[in-house]
Amino acid sequence: MPERHRVPDRHRGLAAGLLRGHLWLVCAFLYVPIAVLVLLSFNRSGLPTAWTGFTFDWYGALAENAAVQRAALNTLIVALASTLIATLLGTLLALGIESRRRASGLLDAILFAPMIIPDIVLAIALLSFFTLLRFTLGLHTIVLAHVVFNIAFVCAVVRTRLKHFDHAIIEASIDLGASEFTTFRRVTLPAILPGVIAAALLAFTLSVDEFIIAYFTAGAGPASTTLPMQIYSMVRFGVTPEINALATIVMLVSFTVLFAAQRLNREALQP
Amino acid sequence: MTFAASRNLLFLAPGLGWLALFLLVPVGLVAAYSLFERGVYGGVVHELTADNFVRAADPLYLGVLLTSAKVAGFAAIAALLLGYPAAYAIARGPRRLQTPLLFLVMLPFWSNYLIRTYAWIVLLNKEGLANQALRALGYDGPAIDMLYTEATVVVGLVYNYLPFVILAVYASLSRLPDELWEASEDLGARGHNTFLRIILPLSLPGVAAGAVFVFVLSIGNFVTPDLLGGGKVQMVGNLIYDQFLTARDWPFGAALSLILIAVMMLLLFAQAVAVNRAQGAHRA
Known about the structure:
The complex is a heterodimer. Chain A folds into 2 domains: 10-40; 66-269, MetI-like (MetI-like fold, Orthogonal Bundle). Helices cover 73% and strands 0% of the residues of chain A. Chain A has helices at 13-40, 57-63, 66-98, 105-116, 119-132, 139-163, 168-175, 180-209, 212-217, 227-237, 241-264. Chain A is globular, with a radius of gyration of 24 Å. By secondary structure, chain B is mostly helical. Chain B has helices at residues 3-33, 51-56, 59-92, 95-106, 113-124, 129-136, 150-173, 178-186, 191-202, 204-219, 223-229, 236-245, 250-283, and strands spanning 37-38, 44-45. Chain B has a two-stranded antiparallel ribbon with strand order 1-2. Chains A and B meet through helix 1, helix 3, helix 4, helix 5 and helix 6 of A and helix 1, helix 3, helix 4, helix 5 and helix 7 of B.
C-alpha cells in the first residue's frame, strides 16, 4: 500500500488520550456545579451535607412564593417586549447592512459596542440618561435598555445567515420577473426566517437572564422587580433550598429555548 | 436617491437610531458627567474639572484598578491554559463529534449568569461540598472558608468565560487543513515540533481573541466579585456601582467608567492590530 495515501488517523496515541481526558475534565468542571444545584433542589433537607430523601417540597414552596411569581411575570413581559422590538429592528438592520456594496467599519463598531461595553457601564449610562430626562423608571425603561444589546445580537445572527445565503437566487427571481417586494416576501424572507426565529429565541434568553442593567433601570419596588433581581436578593440573603429549585426551573427554560434555536439554525451559536 | 438606497436607509434608520439614542447619547452623557463636579447632595454641578480623573489615580482607587487588572489577567491566563487543550482535543477529534462537543461546551454559557456564580457559593462555603470532600479524604481540621478571596473570584470568572476561549481557539484551529500536520510529519518533524513551530503560531489569533475577550469581560465585571468576593475583593465594577448607588458621586463613577472603557478599547485595538499583522505575514 502506498504510504502517502493512508487516511490520517486523527485520534491516536498517548497525547491524544491525554487531550481527550482533559476535555472530559473540562466538561466536568462546567457541569458539576450546575448538576449539584439541580440535585440539591430535590434533597429533602435542602442542604449539601447529606442526601435525606427525594422531595418536590422546594418547588411547592416556590409555587406559594408571590414575590417570585410576580418577578417571573415581569421578566416575561420585559423579555417578550424587548425581543419583539429587537428582532424587528435587528433583522432590518442586518438586511440593510448586507445589501450595502461596501463594508463600513463605523457601522461594525457601533454594532459591536453593545456586546463588549461592560454591563455596569451601560447600566449607569442609561440610569443617568433616564434621570436627566426625568423618565419614570419601571418595566418600560428595562425594555428600552434590553433592546440595545438585543438589537446588536439579533443583527449579528441574521447577518451570518445572510452571508451563507446564495444571492444568485435573488437575481434569478428578479430576472424571472418578480418585483423586489415579491422577491423579498417569497425568496429572501423564507430563506432567513429560521435564522430570525433562532435569533429571537436567543435574544429572549439574554433578556430573561440579564441582571445588572435591569437592576439600574427598574426603579424601586416589586412592580418592576425581574427574576434575576429576585434571585440576586435571595442569594445575598443566603443559600436556601428554594433558590436551587428556582435555578433549576430557570436553567431548564433556557436550555429548552436553546435547543430549539440550535435545531433551527446551526450557525446561530457560533460567533 | 435610488430606490435601493432609500430602502436601505429605511432599514438602517430605526435600529441605528435606537442605538444612537440609548447607547451613544447615554455614554456621551457619562463622558460629560466625568468632567463635572459633584453636588453637595449628590447631584451634578455643571462646573468643569479634571478632579475626578486625578482622584482615580489616588492609591486607594488605583489599587482597585490594579486588582481588577490582576484578577482579569489571571482569569484570562487560566482560561487559556484550560481551554486551549480542550479546543485542540475537539478540533483534532472525530469530525462527527465536533458540533455536539462544541454545543456541550457552550450550553452552560447560556444559563443564567447569577445562577452559575451562585453554584460556586454552594460548592465552596463552609458547609459546602468542597469541605465535605476534604473531610471524606481524611481532613479533620476546622472548616475552610474558600469564599471571598481573589482566587475564588478568578475561579468564578474562568468558569463563566471558559466556553468563549474554547470557541475562539477552536475557530482558528479548525481553519488549519489536515495536510499541515501531514506535511510537517512527512518533512520529518516530530509531534511536539509540529505543534510548537507550526500549529501554535497559526492558532495565535484565536488565542489572542479568547484571552482579550476574557480579560475585557472580567475587568468590568460586577456580579462575580460582588457574590464571590463578598465585599473583600473590590473591583472597578463594584466601585462604579458604589459611586452611583451608595456614595452618590456620579461624576467620579462616570470617570471610572470612562477609564474602564479606555482600557478595553486599547486592548481590543491592540488585538485587532496583532491579528491583522499575523494575517498579513501569512499572505506575504
